[in-house]
Amino acid sequence: MHLEFRNELRKLMGGKLVTVPRVFMKGRYIGGADEVLKIHEGGKMAELLAGIPTAMAGRVCDGCGGVRFVPCMECSGSCKLVNDDKMVVRCPECNENGLILCPICC
Asked: For residue 58, what pLDDT band results from cuts at 50, 70 and 90?
């Protein structure tokens, strides 16, 4: 998982280490997979989703295919760059997986 997202999730969960999936709606913690399934089976999901904009069905981003991340354009996903002193350094643009947020949809 992207380090920034993992840190944000940890902060939202009061500093605890948590596993995914964790679902939040309108800034409120809903639960994990089991809790969400119970809400859905209980017919309450539509109520929770009311007012949340939906993506256009059948449309995905041309840049990332809907996954929100693409390989870093600076280092081609290697996380490494050669600086002016001919030293290999960590790419400052990408995450630990060599990915950046899609510049088209994010």
From this structure: low
